[in-house]
Amino acid sequence: MRLNGVAAVALACHRPVPDKHGTSSSLLLLPPPLLQFFSLGFHSSMTSNVQIHRIDFNKIKKLEDVFFLFDEMLRMRPLPSTLQFTLLLTDVTKMKHYSASLSLYKEMGALGIPINEYIMCWNWVLNPFFFRRGIVPNVATFGILLKGLVLEDRVPEAVILFTKLIRERVCEPNEVMYGTIVSGLCKTGNTSRAIQLLRLMEEEGKCKPNTVIDNTVVDGLCKDRMVDDALILFTEMIEKCIPPNVVTYNSMIHGLCINERWNDAIRLLREMVERKIFPDVHT
């Protein structure tokens, strides 16, 4: 039986699959208070309408089977999906035939097969083999990978990767990485958890919230019609000398308008102008 989504990624990384509450035994390795944060479940509406061929990956027992199946897939019309080629490469990596995996990846690239680079990075750069070979990705690499996962609606995988980076001290997350996870949480309706992550940044992290990160949460709260919570965070930004900008005010004004709080919206508009922050077309 083939696994996909969070289960496939967890298996590929040799990690327990999260239960229905989003927890797993591997999270016990997290230092507090990050343990508490990442042990809390969150939801995501990940769906796929991709039409795929029926390919029996279970018949792969040895490396020769991989190349035989690869030749079969190349003869299919239309070609199998990107996901199926990625699954084939994942199997090779899990068999620890790393050189073969890299060779197949290069051959697919030469043939113009659009392999999912984010998932391949997941399978390769986090594998101990590559660290032993001295191939160690940097903060920028992981930042791009996290952003790619979020853009592809793979927020659960992004959170698992972020957790792994912290748990195994692979690198110290920077503002971009925190911002990406906050954005992903808000995108999937987990704004309350995004706020919790903001608090952890303030209390535990070396990186502190900034205007961009706070704007993401303010916008998420307003879209969820939690405008009072957004106002609290907005006030905290000013108190902590995190300067609001036109994006902050636009989110707040929009949130107040959809809740028919016209007087508050007008007040913020006037305050915005007084702060020399000029309205734009969105305002």
Automatic annotation (TrEMBL):
This is Pentatricopeptide repeat-containing protein. It holds the Pfam family PPR_1. The keyword Repeat applies. PROSITE patterns: PPR (PS51375). PPR repeats lie at residues 174-208, 210-244, 245-279. It comes from Escallonia rubra. PANTHER family: PENTATRICOPEPTIDE REPEAT-CONTAINING PROTEIN 3, MITOCHONDRIAL (PTHR47941). The lineage of its organism: Eukaryota, Viridiplantae, Streptophyta, Embryophyta, Tracheophyta. Keywords: Repeat. It comes from the Eukaryota.
